[in-house]
């Protein structure tokens, strides 16, 4: 599904590579977690895979398509849930979704039905006509998610989709993602919530300093490190306990 | 096409949700046009209700000073306040209390007469018509100076017009005195008209006409197009802010991941902001036609010109929008786009001849002026308002405005593609 080969990215004026010679294969139907400390290169990788930034070297393909050759076809195939809300605060939830759904070529009754369906499933139908700037962080996260899945993407990239939301919102989001996965959507997501990743992902990769340190099913990784009781222990063992502040 | 309409609708919603911004967008240009027209109206009026107070110090008390005084009074532009001393007048003017003081020197009339008589007598004696003047009677008269004190803050144009006016009056008085001196030398009968002292050369201004009616320019006809154009170009400020906001909200980033072209995104903005320009323009014409007469200003004459005017407004609006799209694409923050946009419009307006006519600019600035889209727009508006041209005659200016829109939009798209190439 996703083939990544020797992918690297070094930002202008940066001394080090954010992503360095990364090889990875993500299969169809997987829920793949990209885990790592701050500045490890997770968001950079997702940004490259979603055409937001240009790799310094290497290449990747999604379903055999590349942005260089099949830009719009590929964009139609994928969905991106950015870390920021990336919505219009003065528009209502419905207006935001109608506009963003239209950008995927959806229209008319089909678009309305999809918006209403997702709003209902994610518990937002009562608030669909309210302006987004009146929404809580959790509600905005859910709208942010819907905006990226209205067109039924084959691959969904999520950059920390549950950051800063309450437990209830988080559960609703994760449940909905699981449903989408069962319907055939491959999910690639980054998170700092390791317990969530352990429960949610079929496979994870721990990434640090732009390189994959280890990858595999969460259970396998835990069993490979006998001193670890959970994925968080594995993570700390592999990436260390030193603070990773960066500016 | 559906994506374009969705983008347009989104822009409409965004604008309509910002009531304050919308009000500013429509109200401020109207306030601007009304204010400027009211201020500049006086310069177009032949009869001025608001006279400029000036100081008058007359040490001469003769015929010459009386003629200058009468000339100033007849112009109906000045409220002449007499002062006894030169010093007091100078002080008041230099403190900025008055714009101007005119000081007529002592014995100006008598010495002018003496000087002219001497010249005339000298001339006649050369022709043998008069007795040769004895050397003892030849007096070397010193030149007399009419002194003008100007407030240092007075604008050069005003100073020049005053100086020219007084110079003309003095020249006329000198000429008449010469005629008078000849008359008195040739005949003793003062009532006998030997010379026709009226000016032989006069001038007549021929203005363009529509049918049998003359097109007489007035402050409204000059100011409405100029400041309407200025307001239209100010659209670049809210437009660029709108784009920068989308960047900071992350929505632009999201759109880059969608299968939608940047051209479509810009297309939606173009359609909505062009509508704003046209509504603005309609409102400005409305106040020119209906409100200005109530305010005592001349009415804006738009009869038979509406299609041409809106055509120019559409193309001027497109040029302004192109610039706004480019600024919005390049700018990263509102702190960059808003001050730059506002200042740039002022520069374009200055170059375009909104404040100072292009023909009085230095040669280099005149060349630069030809590159200002506001100059093209202003010429097109003047063509319609003051020269009464048809649509065909507007084609050159409209083409330039449209090309400017196409080029700025193309640069925006190329810049965006280059910057975000994957």
TrEMBL record, chain A:
One of its GO terms (molecular function) is ATP binding. Residues 2-234 form the ABC transporter domain. InterPro entries: AAA+_ATPase, ABC_transporter-like_ATP-bd, ABC_transporter-like_CS, P-loop_NTPase. Keywords: ATP-binding, Nucleotide-binding. It holds the Pfam family ABC_tran. It comes from the Bacteria. The keyword Cytoplasm does not apply. This is ABC transporter ATP-binding protein.
Automatic annotation (TrEMBL), chain B:
It comes from the Bacteria. Pfam families: ABC2_membrane_3. It is found in: Cell membrane. InterPro entries: ABC-2_transporter_component, ABC2_TM, ABC2_TM_bact-type. It is a multi-pass membrane protein. Residues 183-419 form the ABC transmembrane type-2 domain. Keywords: Cell membrane, Membrane, Transmembrane, Transmembrane helix, Transport. Signal peptide: none annotated. PROSITE patterns: ABC_TM2 (PS51012). The chain crosses the membrane at residues 21-39, 224-244, 271-294, 306-328, 340-360, 398-416. Belongs to the ABC-2 integral membrane protein family. This is ABC transporter permease. It comes from Arenibacter arenosicollis.
